[in-house]
């Protein structure tokens, strides 16, 4: 049983953003500050990646740990109410993410996934991403 009425829950869920989230904007600012230019949410690519670096044939997804089920993460909890619905929802999210990643790689794109919790506590993930992009720039 939900602790709020249906109209309130609907309003709350409608407020959850899928684009321009805090972690996504943080990564974009980091890339831009380091001289990288990119495109956002290219709908012609599978999964509409959050950030696309065409020069490097690289797509970056910034995944929320809750919605995309970061393995072993303390933020990947399952709500206690309507658990069957949530398990099915999360399972389809993970399956869709795997399909999109495979389709992008099959088309020749490199795919980087950055988890929300990784950038919440440390810049190490972004620094590794920057190192990876710089090494690709040398190869080209």
Automatic annotation (TrEMBL):
Gene Ontology annotations of biological process type: mismatch repair
Biological source species: Pseudomonas bharatica CSV86
Name of encoding gene: vsr
Name the record gives this protein: Very short patch repair endonuclease
Family, per entry: Belongs to the vsr family.
EC class name: hydrolase
Enzyme Commission number(s) from the entry: 3.1.-.-
Function: May nick specific sequences that contain T:G mispairs resulting from m5C-deamination.
Record key words, sorted: DNA damage, DNA repair, Endonuclease, Hydrolase, Nuclease
Molecular function terms, GO-annotated: endonuclease activity; hydrolase activity
